[in-house]
Amino acid sequence: MEYDTGLEHKFARFGDGIQVDDNAVIQGYASVFGEADQGGDIVQKGAYAASIKALESKGARVKMLWQHDPAQPIGVWDEVREDTRGLWVKGRLLESTQKGREAAALIGAGAIDGLSIGYRTTKASKTDKGQRLLSELELWEVSLVTFPMLPSARVAAKGAHAEFDDAWRSIAAVLNDARQELARR
Question: Does the keyword Protease apply (predicted)?
Answer without folding.
Answer: yes
